[in-house]
Amino acid sequence: MEKLEMLYEGKAKKVYKTDNKDLYVVEYKDDATAFDGAKKGKISGKGVVNNKISSVIFTLIEKKGVPTHFVKYLSETEQLVKAVEIVPLEVIIRNVAAGSISKRLGIEEGTKLSETVLEFCYKNDDFHDPIINEYHARVMGLASTEELEKIKEYTFKINEILVEFFKEKGLNLIDFKVEFGRHNGEIILADEISPDTCRLWDMETNEKMDKDRFRRDLGKVEETYREVLSRIE
Ligand code: C5P
């Protein structure tokens, strides 16, 4: 397998074509952004750590029956994935209120939600990833009813898998964001799952073990990402 030209550069990753049109190489970067790109920085070693964390998590999710783009870990910062067409939706699950739901709806951060909340956002920087519902997703042609059903089914299943997994590691999964893609007409989990895309609180101390350390200038950012990896490896 040969790595060819770069196809896309995102905020935290680069995607490369390969000599197999069905496969891409994803390279994880140290760059970090927050607040819709208003805050920019680097978290030293993040690319290496997130590549490992995401590889462990995608392997687990695949094993538990949700199809994913993950093929294999290639190097410290690279993984081989199935080529997908990304569905332009950010799918967010919330178990406990934090971040934007607290700001938007006034639910105090740390409040356990009486049921799991799923949100869709339209993945579009020009519009600042606005929250939308399934009607918007359909009329904008982002996904079909069948695809939205699959996406919801997979996302709730991923939540069950990850709540249990992180609990065993002493971590409370507060919320997370996932993205899906189309591969041979099927919906599969794509993108990454890491402390960049989840909120994880230590079960004993409630200490934040995720990107909120960068967003909110809480310090010990690099150490925290490494600590999450050491707990799940
Ligand atoms: O900011 P908000 O509270 O809506 O984020 C909910 C969850 O989704 C958090 O875990 C956050 O890290 C993740 N997220 C993300 N990428 C975005 C927006 C949110 O990974 N663009």
UniProtKB/TrEMBL annotation:
EC supergroup of this enzyme: ligase
Residue ranges of domain SAICAR synthetase/ADE2 N-terminal in the record: 7-231
GO molecular function terms noted in the UniProt entry: ATP binding; phosphoribosylaminoimidazolesuccinocarboxamide synthase activity
Catalytic activity: 5-amino-1-(5-phospho-D-ribosyl)imidazole-4-carboxylate + L-aspartate + ATP = (2S)-2-[5-amino-1-(5-phospho-beta-D-ribosyl)imidazole-4-carboxamido]succinate + ADP + phosphate + 2 H(+)
UniProt keyword annotation of Ribosomal protein present: no
Pathways per UniProt: Purine metabolism; IMP biosynthesis via de novo pathway; 5-amino-1-(5-phospho-D-ribosyl)imidazole-4-carboxamide from 5-amino-1-(5-phospho-D-ribosyl)imidazole-4-carboxylate: step 1/2
PANTHER family reported for this sequence: MULTIFUNCTIONAL PROTEIN ADE2 (PTHR43599), SI:DKEY-6E2.2 (PTHR43599:SF3)
Family: Belongs to the SAICAR synthetase family.
Name of the protein this chain belongs to: Phosphoribosylaminoimidazole-succinocarboxamide synthase
Encoding gene per record: purC
